Amino acid sequence: MVTELWTPTGTASLGVAPVGHNVETGSPIVAHTIMLKATDRFGKEHKMRVQVLADKDTAQAQIEEMMGNAAEKFIVDVRNKYNKRAPTQEEHKQIGHALNELRKYTKKRVASTSNRIYFKGITI
């Protein structure tokens, strides 16, 4: 039985819980749960819970390696996924005004018989 596991930096161990038995060998399977934390380029912290499943035949080094791989993949995913900052409140307002204006002109164009009412930004 594994007692103390090494966990990657930026992670917190949430404990071990039994999840079932291996059908072939009959040995118990336990889930080692860790909480991964990573910060993107804009300072927002992202968290994810990971469970590493292991039975009595799984070596401690293998469990630690699986945890390390999961943590590394999570950090890479956070860096790749969150590379653009979220719009500010003022930018949200500007986007909303532009969308409302586009909807208004779309309704006018559909209502006109000649389809000649265009959005202000488009000139023909």
Produce the secondary structure layout.
Blueprint: E1 11-21, E2 28-39, E3 45-55, H1 60-81, H2 89-111
Antiparallel strand pairs: 1-2, 2-3
How would you characterize the overall build of this protein?
- It is a single chain.
- Helix content is 36%, strand content 27%.
- The protein contains two helices and three strands; from the N terminus they run E-E-E-H-H.
- The protein has helices at residues 60-81, 89-111; strands spanning 11-21, 28-39, 45-55.
- The longest helix has 23 residues, at 89-111.
- The mean pLDDT is 83.
- What's the story with the biggest beta sheet? 3 strands, antiparallel
| SSE sequence, one letter per element | EEEHH
The secondary structure category is alpha+beta
* Share of β-strand residues: 25-35%
From the N-terminal CA to the C-terminal CA, the straight-line distance is: 76 Å
Overall pLDDT: 83
Low-confidence stretches are none
Shape: elongated
> Which bin fits the share of residues in helices?
25-40%
Count of all domains: 2
Number of strands: 3
Q: What is the radius of gyration computed over CA atoms, rounded to a whole number of angstroms?
A: 26 Å
Largest sheet, order of strands side by side? 1-2-3
Our count of helices gives: 2
